[in-house]
Design goal:
It is a single chain. The radius of gyration is 36 Å and the shape is elongated. Helix 7 crosses helix 8. A hairpin with a 7-residue loop joins strand 5 and strand 6. It has 2 domains: about 270 residues, L,D-transpeptidase catalytic domain-like (Beta Barrel), CATH 2.40.440; about 60 residues, no CATH class. The strands form 4 sheets. It has a 5-stranded mixed β-sheet. Strands 5-6-7-8 form a 4-stranded mixed β-sheet, covered by helices on one side. By secondary structure, the protein is of the alpha+beta class. The chain has 13 helices and 13 strands. Keywords: Cell shape, Cell wall biogenesis/degradation, Peptidoglycan synthesis, Signal, Transferase. Pathway: Cell wall biogenesis; peptidoglycan biosynthesis. InterPro entries: LD_TPept_cat_dom, Transpep_catalytic_dom.
Length: about 400
């Protein structure tokens, strides 16, 4: 009976110590978990905002690019124009280039979405997150299904824009401060790639090109005006309201017209056409490098698929269109074959016998640009008669004279 009591006595203080230590650790961890949604915007990011004439409370707009695996932060400055502030590398996105159409397809959506304050989730199982608003009116018009498409922490995606916890926390803080400043909702633009004329020409044979042309129109409008596009849906297509500023509206139309012409010119010039395929989405090279160095990013969804990301299949090989013949300026013509030049008498002397009769025109061929009017006047005035046509020659003789 003495042995059990003796064995238990020294363990009671140890248990009490361990319990107290565990409770203390939990007490320290609880505020940290509760405060992750209220972490301030990093000073370096605030400095970037100040340099662009904006602040933490100003409205924001986000633009995502799947092919480049990046999300851009834009903020409205004092002049009322959205300006780029910072670009964040995406740690993981899933699926292929192209829109999301159904639940479970692992596709990251493409289009124009709206994020309200109610879509922010400080209690996300993926650190912090916000719902981008899929499906939108366009998606619903096309029968798309699915929900809960997020920008969140942890490098794992099943149709979401997966960032690291640190990046997700910064994006959450930026959005939180914009809402606190009075912004009711912000626009989230999701694209397959940067909507340049070169990229559009390069993917011109992709089955999604018609849809991407609609996204291109909205992208051009935003870049030309610096205003958040007012987006609607008409006849199953994205529709964009004109700017209230006539000058900005003219700029938007001009840019889109020029970009459309540039795409057509690139195709005409022989730019290659490709289709980019993925095993299951991609990852920014920055995070691939950091992960290879042992940097922790949490669970990575389907890491084996990242080795086959962004494989380009060439559908139309690039070809070089021959350059058009250069037009020789009049000054060059006059300097080379005009009267008084070494080549002028030589050209007359070297005419073959069957070209006889041209010497009668030499007096009128003084200037290249005046040749035709001068000859017409001389003919009308009777100074030059009709040309004397030579008798037809046998084919053998004509070939021998060439």
């Amino acid at each position: 009976m003495l042995f059990p009591d003796a064995a238990r006595r020294p363990t009671r203080p140890l248990l009490r110590l361990l319990t107290a230590t565990l409770l203390a650790l939990l007490a320290l961890a609880a505020p940290a978990r509760a405060d992750k949604a209220s972490q301030p915007i990093p000073p370096a990011t605030l400095a970037l905002m100040a340099a662009k004439g904006t602040s933490a409370s100003a409205p924001i707009l986000l633009r995502a690019y799947k092919r480049e695996s990046e999300i851009e932060l834009w903020k409205r400055n004092g002049a009322g124009r959205y300006v780029p502030i910072k670009t964040y590398p995406i740690c993981r996105w899933s699926g292929q280039l192209g829109p999301k159409t159904r639940n479970g397809d692992r596709q990251v959506p493409e289009g124009f979405y709206t994020v309200a304050k109610s879509q922010m989730n400080p209690n996300s199982r993926y650190y912090l997150s916000f719902d981008i608003g899929y499906p939108n009116a366009y998606d619903r018009a096309h029968g798309a299904t699915g929900s809960a498409i997020m920008v969140h922490g942890i490098c794992s995606s099943m149709g979401c824009f997966a960032m690291t916890d640190q990046v997700a926390g910064e994006l959450f803080a930026v959005a939180r401060e914009a809402f606190a400043g009075g912004q009711g909702a912000f626009q989230f633009q999701a694209f397959p790639f940067r909507m340049t004329a070169a990229n559009m020409a390069r993917h011109r044979t992709d089955p999604n090109i018609g849809f991407w042309r609609q996204l291109k129109e909205g992208s051009d409008r935003f870049e030309a005006t610096g205003e958040e596009p007012v987006v609607g849906v008409a006849n199953g297509r994205y529709a964009f309201a004109p700017s209230k500023d006539p000058d900005k509206e003219a700029a938007a139309q001009a840019l889109h017209r020029d970009e459309t012409a540039r795409i057509a010119a690139l195709a005409e010039e022989g730019a290659a056409a490709v289709r980019t395929t993925y095993s299951d989405g991609g990852q920014h090279a920055f995070w691939a490098h950091r992960i290879s160095q042992g940097f922790p990013v949490g669970d990575i969804s389907r890491p084996e698929a990242l080795a086959y990301a962004g494989q380009e299949v060439v559908l139309i090989a690039a070809r070089r269109k021959p350059a058009p013949p250069a037009i020789m300026p009049e000054t060059l013509w006059a300097a080379v074959i005009g009267p008084g030049t070494p080549f002028f008498p030589r050209r007359i002397a070297e005419r073959p016998p069957y070209a006889g009769g041209t010497a009668r025109l030499a007096a009128y061929a003084m200037r290249y640009q005046e040749t035709l009017p001068t000859l017409l006047r001389a003919s009308l005035d009777g100074e030059i008669g009709p040309p004397v046509l030579a008798e037809p020659q046998p084919m053998v003789e004509r070939m021998a004279q060439r």
